[in-house]
From TrEMBL:
Catalytic activity: 2 GTP = 3',3'-c-di-GMP + 2 diphosphate
Entry protein name: diguanylate cyclase
InterPro entries named in the record: CheY-like_superfamily (IPR011006), Diguanylate_Cyclase (IPR050469), GGDEF_dom (IPR000160), Nucleotide_cyclase (IPR029787), Rev_trsase/Diguanyl_cyclase (IPR043128), Sig_transdc_resp-reg_receiver (IPR001789)
UniProt entry tagged with the keyword Phosphoprotein: yes
Organism: Pseudoalteromonas lipolytica
Occurrences of domain Response regulatory (ranges): 4-116, 124-241
4-aspartylphosphate, modified sites: 53, 174
EC number per UniProt: 2.7.7.65
Length: 411
């Protein structure tokens, strides 16, 4: 079900722009043009978030803010100006953020915030502090922005929680704690996890000399002095989360074939090598199927390159579906591979043969031009020492399949 946000705004043009932004990032949106209307909509609906105008005809001094905040709706306030009095009023409420409506950037910022909120729900943050009051305060700040939160009382406890919860991606840690302080915790975390897996933000009392550099040199990514300003806390946190996500995106792009979205050759080799090492240690053999489309050049020649691309995409989807428990990759051109880490060569071979039959019968049903094609497969099983060797052996069989008539599996 699409989530809904509530826009409380009396200026129709601004409300329209905000609604457009909401739709763009995947929300439905209701518009209330007054506080009275907002109250009614809140009573009748569940809202994921609210964007509230500071000045409304029946709420000239930010009176609409508590209306959404008290209903536990994460609230972003939009203001025409941000003088001292307005800022003081706005900051009294536990809102997510406030944005001045002065320029185009304000709406880009709103879009960024609305995009972040659902993303934050997937992010698990570990808060490490021996003071229950500070932990509660930080956890409340995080919960307001919809982060998932988990707590630890000192460095030793944090390492245990980290081991039990591998999905933690950000650690916010105090320094002065019994058993293991924040600085030592950073060193331990960096011994186990890289900066591109988990971000650490150190927090400590403002008057502690050189602590920020000590934290950073021990492996923290960022540092905040207590007492900190909520806005700065959120800015630093989201910058660190953005950094982790950017690294994840870059890594995914580097490992994925741009056309078919299958793992590319590089990723396939890396993963298969890992499996191969494990199989070798367990004295097990592995299997590999090299799959090649027959006469693919003539498909390109007859239907055009775009249709050829479409066939490659369709075959990739079928491979992913058919071999969802195995490592599948596009090794290049019209050549694909399936790696079987399990120790049952007969079953692996049968599954490949079944797949070849399936494509022979149904290939025309997948592509937009209903193109018929067949596959040649080279299969190898054995105690090989490297993935190159495994591919070389399977390639030799594939060559035999091509040489002896195509549309067949040779093992
Ligand atoms: N559309 C499309 N074609 C590609 C892509 N990558 C490689 N090709 C084409 O795939 C064709 C492969 O041709 P060949 O190596 O002669 O193989 P074939 O025609 O399939 O013949 P056999 O393998 O011997 O059955 C070439 O024409 C390449 O240009 C791609 O990403 N998209």
């Amino acid at each position: 079900m699409t989530r809904k946000i509530l826009i409380i705004e009396d200026a129709p043009t601004i409300a329209r722009v905000q609604k457009h932004i909401a739709h763009k990032v995947g929300f439905e949106a209701d518009i209330a043009t007054s506080l009275a209307e907002a109250k009614q909509l809140i009573a009748e609906n569940n809202y994921f978030c609210a964007v509230v105008d500071f000045i409304l005809p029946d709420a000239p001094n930010g009176e609409a803010i508590p209306c959404s905040v008290d209903a536990d709706i994460p609230t972003i306030v939009m203001t025409g100006n941000l003088d001292e009095k307005t800022r003081n009023t706005v900051e009294k409420h536990p809102i997510i953020d406030y944005i001045t409506k002065e320029n185009k950037q304000a709406y880009q910022y709103l879009e960024k915030q609305l995009t972040r909120l659902p993303r934050n729900e997937q992010i698990l943050v570990l808060v490490v502090d021996d003071s229950p009051a500070t932990r509660r305060h930080i956890c409340n700040l995080l919960a307001r922005h919809k982060y998932q939160v988990i707590e630890a009382v000192d460095g030793v406890d944090a390492l245990r929680v980290l081991a039990e919860n591998p999905s933690i991606s950000v650690i916010i840690t105090d320094n002065e704690m019994p058993n293991m302080n924040g600085d030592q915790l950073c060193v331990e975390i960096r011994r186990l996890y890289n900066n591109d897996e988990k971000a650490i933000i150190g927090i400590s009392a403002q008057d502690t000399l050189h602590l920020s550099t000590r934290f950073l040199k021990s492996g923290a990514d960022d540092y905040l002095s207590k007492p900190f300003n909520n806005e700065e806390f959120y800015c630093r946190l989201s910058q660190n989360v953005d950094m982790l996500e950017n690294i994840k995106t870059i890594r995914l792009q580097a490992n994925t074939d741009y056309l078919t979205s299958l793992p590319n050759r590089r990723y396939f080799f890396g993963e298969a090598s890992q499996h191969l090492k494990a199989a070798h240690a367990a004295k097990k053999s592995v299997s590999l199927g090299m799959i090649d489309i027959d006469y693919f050049k003539s498909i390109n020649d007859k239907y055009g390159h775009d249709s050829g691309d479409d066939v490659l995409k369709c075959l990739s989807r079928c491979l992913l579906k058919y071999f969802k428990d195995n490592l599948v990759g596009r090794l290049g051109g019209e050549e694909f591979a399936v790696f079987f880490a399990d120790n049952d060569p007969q079953q692996a071979q049968q599954r490949l043969e079944k797949f070849r039959h399936f494509i022979e019968k149904h290939s025309a049903e997948f592509s937009r031009d209903n193109i018929t094609f067949t596959l040649s497969i080279g299969f190898h099983n054995g105690p090989v020492y490297s993935i190159d060797e495994l591919i070389k052996q399977a390639d030799l069989k594939l060559y035999q399949a091509k040489e002896t008539g195509r549309n067949k599996l040779v093992s």
